[in-house]
């Protein structure tokens, strides 16, 4: 285990927790833990993701879409027309529509 200061030099604060500052400290602690766990701890990874993502879609372009439109652009429609997919499949490397593996796949 290791210790992380929730506040700069927080481990050096030597004030007794009594009365109103207990609730204040509790609220601060919860918000700082959330900030550290979901933001600070993964900041490096999020920056790398954002850098790669904005190579594909410039930030100015991303800003014009809401979250639903971005999901549609990135993921497409949720429905898959299996018959259409099957009709337009191209088989390679010795596979054909009658191959046992292909038959198994479409079941």
From TrEMBL:
Catalytic activity: S-ubiquitinyl-[E2 ubiquitin-conjugating enzyme]-L-cysteine + [acceptor protein]-L-lysine = [E2 ubiquitin-conjugating enzyme]-L-cysteine + N(6)-ubiquitinyl-[acceptor protein]-L-lysine
Pathway(s) it belongs to: Protein modification; protein ubiquitination
Gene Ontology terms describing biological process: protein ubiquitination; regulation of dendrite morphogenesis; ubiquitin-dependent protein catabolic process
Taxonomy, superkingdom: Eukaryota
SUPFAM superfamilies to which the protein is assigned, alphabetical: Hect, E3 ligase catalytic domain (SSF56204)
Top-level EC class: transferase
Keywords, in A-Z order: Transferase, Ubl conjugation pathway
Pfam families: HECT (PF00632)
Official protein name in the record: HECT-type E3 ubiquitin transferase
Organism: Balaenoptera physalus
Lineage of source species: Eukaryota, Metazoa, Chordata, Craniata, Vertebrata
């Amino acid at each position: 285990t290791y210790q992380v200061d929730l506040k700069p030099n927080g481990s050096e604060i030597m004030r007794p927790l009594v009365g109103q500052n207990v609730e204040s400290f509790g609220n601060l602690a919860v918000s700082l833990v959330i900030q550290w766990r979901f933001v600070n701890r993964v900041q490096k990874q999020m920056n790398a993701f954002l850098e790669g993502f904005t190579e594909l879609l410039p930030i100015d372009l991303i800003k014009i879409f809401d979250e639903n439109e971005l999901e549609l652009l990135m993921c497409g429609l949720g429905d898959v027309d299996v018959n259409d997919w099957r009709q337009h499949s191209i088989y390679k490397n010795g596979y054909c529509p009658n191959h046992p593996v292909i038959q198994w796949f479409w079941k």
